[in-house]
Amino acid sequence: MARYYELKELETKAPKLFGIPTGTKLDDMFYRIEREGDRYIKKPLGGIPHLAVMNITGVPDTGKSVFAEQFAVTQANSGYRVLFVTVESPANFLYTALKQKAEAMGADFSRVEENIVVIDAAESDELRENVRALIDTMAYAIREKKTSNVIIDSITGLYEHKEVMARQIVRQVFNFLKKFRQTGILVSQKRSAQASESAEAAGGLAVAHIVDGTIVLDKKLIETRWDVNLYGLPLGEVLRTLRIDGCRLTAHDSKTWVFEITDTGLVDIISPLSDYVESKIR
Fold first, then answer.
1. Which pLDDT band, with edges at 50, 70 and 90, does 259 fall under?
2. N or C: which end of the chain has fewer CB atoms below 10 A?
């Protein structure tokens, strides 16, 4: 039987709009508009929208996993439980990465250990190849450990040999996270041949059209005299950029930003690309 709602019936079910901190300057880039007197003003959310399922995409070595791990440590250190599904790297390697992140961020690692739950799909063919089995395992972990955030690194690893099923798999995961009221980070790979400004750069049609929003990470190798003059970096350096490619849950900054991965392995967002270039040519 078809079901419908009067709009007012949804009021009590509608999620509140507030931010879930990521531990990066990205937290200032999502905002909502509020009216104060005769003016409308922007108010930063302080993180990605609560209960959003965000797609973090980019070519290899752009910082996607670094961002996901920084988010996990930030949330766990604040006392919120995180379910981390590792599809690419075995769980013991993830432990080392999270410990290093916690030390670099000055977080209490004993608290981080207590609040992060890991499902190792990297070393389990059943979980990696059978999405139903993975979802059942995630449901058990969420109920038992009462998590509020889920990270899957990477969602691409669940359909790497069967891209024809990508849309179906991403939809299943998206609906599951909504049903269990989890804020989600899905890491996805894009091919190096896909231009960063194209639709494919947002993870392709399979992901970008389903999730609530996409954050695109990119990198540019400084390889010409023109690049040196424009970006003020020496030949052979890498310029990393980040942009929010869309978010249907709230307003957001649409500029391309420059960021770096620090010596301690953290994402540090520096400035809008336009400001960065202007500062280099003065």
1. very high
2. N
- DSSP bridge partners of 267: 261
The band of 209, judged by pLDDT with boundaries at 50, 70 and 90, is confident
Report whether 272 contacts 256 (CB < 8 A).
yes
Spatial distance between the Cα atoms of 271 and 273, rounded to a whole number of angstroms:
6
Q: Which residues contact 272 (CB under 8 A, 6 or more apart)?
A: 255, 256, 257, 258
| Long-range contacts of residues 174-180, Cβ cutoff 8 Å, at least 24 apart | 174/53, 174/210, 174/211, 176/135, 176/138, 176/139, 177/53, 177/150, 178/51, 178/53, 180/138, 180/139, 180/142
- For every residue of 78-144, DSSP letters joined together read TT--EEEEESSS-HHHHHHHHHHHHHHHT--HHHHHHHEEEEE-TT-HHHHH-HHHHHHHHHHHHHH
Burial of 38 (0-12, 13-18, 19+ CB in 10 A): exposed
Residue partners of 108: CB distance under 8 A and separation at least 6: 77, 102
CA distance 118 to 68: 13
pLDDT tens, residue by residue, 187-202? 998 755 555 555 454 4
Q: Which residues pair with 82 in a beta bridge?
A: 116, 149
User: Rounded to the nearest 5°, which phi and psi values hold at 229?
Assistant: -70, -40
For residue 195, what are the contacts with CB-CB under 8 A and spacing of at least 6?
201
Count CB neighbours of 4 within 10 A: 5
